[in-house]
Amino acid sequence: MYSPSFPAESRNFVDLRSDTVTRPTPEMFEAMLNAPLGDDVLGDDPTVIQLEELAAKMTGKEAGLFVPSGTMGNQLALASQCDRGDAIIIEEQAHIIYYEVGAPALLAGVVTFTLPSERGAMDPENVERHVLKRDLHTPGTSLICLENTHNRGGGSIIPLEWMREYRAIGERHGVKVHLDGARVFNAAVALGVPVVDITENVDSVNFCLSKGLRSPIGSLLCSSQETIDKARIWRKRLGGGMRQAGILAACGIVSLTQMVDRLADDHARAKRLAESIGTLPGLSVDLSTVETNMVLVNTEAPATDWRAWLGEAGVLCFPVAAHRLRLVLHGDIDDDCVTRAIESFGEVSHRCTHT
């Protein structure tokens, strides 16, 4: 999925393609200007160190590692916790499988057992049935991979009690649990709990600073010191070592200290948008699925047609299925933007039903 060749702001679009399109805040620019710097590959950038320690503390882990992207964070977690030829258990539409270009096979060299789910939440009993013991014929399961919130599930949340069950399965079988928590702070805010209530149930967690938390670049992998030490080697091996990375880490500190609670605004605007769009002819929305900052809109006409029509009306979004659009709310979308989006959807719906 690629954006148009022109900048969204040049035509005053309401950009609902993703929460990755957010711009840094004034506080972030100020933090970048004043950040003390070193060389992160040499381990002496004080701002990176501060960010990694903050992330580890918030997630309840021993250590953190600042990485350029969520994809890298996930792949470092696999490579540092699995041996080549090991098996992982993962949901069948997980980002790690669907959007990371075959990296689990190419980099970590793992066998993937993909399981069905209910909007990203795998049945714990089914997960346990697929845990394999290593023998002459069978790869051993070394990692259970979760995604919370779930992208293709429309920002869906894995229930806390299921997170605890996955943890218990791992402990029973000596299997580690990794969380692709790209939007785990959205899940925590929606549940009304500190993020550690979710992350305490996993051995490693990757989360993005560059989505709802509004940093321009970067993710954090948090885990045990042993896993992070291995992941740091993998980061260097993959070309992810950055030098004066404190320029970017400064934004991440702002994200984690100032941008978490405001995610509730994105969730509220998503509900408002969903409630209005779902009443329009030619469209439908299952309001029970709007748990965080995403809205999945079912369309009678092809979703690609709707994307084109909405683009002409000033709204950018992505089709995620033949008759489904995904709308993502974020910090650059205020109440006025939501009103404009609702009006644009209404204009297109009226035009389509009167031609």
Question: Counting H and I runs of at least 4 residues, what is the number of helices?
Answer: 14
Which word captures the global form? globular
Would you count the extended β strands for me? 13
Rg from Cα: 21 Å
User: Numbering strands along the chain, what is their spatial order in the largest sheet?
Assistant: 2-8-7-6-5-3-4
Task: Provide structural commentary.
The chain is an alpha/beta fold and 355 residues long. The chain has helices at residues 26-34, 46-59, 70-81, 95-98, 103-108, 124-129, 160-173, 184-191, 196-199, 225-237, 246-258, 263-277, 303-312, 335-353; strands spanning 14-15, 63-67, 87-91, 111-115, 141-147, 176-180, 204-208, 219-223, 283-284, 294-299, 315-316, 318-321, 324-328. The strands form three sheets. The chain has a seven-stranded mixed β-sheet with strand order 2-8-7-6-5-3-4, with helices on both faces. Strands 9-10-13-12 form a four-stranded antiparallel β-sheet. The two termini are 29 Å apart.
Detail the topology: elements first, then pairings.
Blueprint: E1 14-15, H1 26-34, H2 46-59, E2 63-67, H3 70-81, E3 87-91, H4 95-98, H5 103-108, E4 111-115, H6 124-129, E5 141-147, H7 160-173, E6 176-180, H8 184-191, H9 196-199, E7 204-208, E8 219-223, H10 225-237, H11 246-258, H12 263-277, E9 283-284, E10 294-299, H13 303-312, E11 315-316, E12 318-321, E13 324-328, H14 335-353
Parallel strand pairs: 1-11, 3-4, 3-5, 5-6, 6-7
Antiparallel strand pairs: 2-8, 7-8, 9-10, 10-13, 12-13
Helix pairs in contact: 1-11, 2-11, 3-10, 12-14
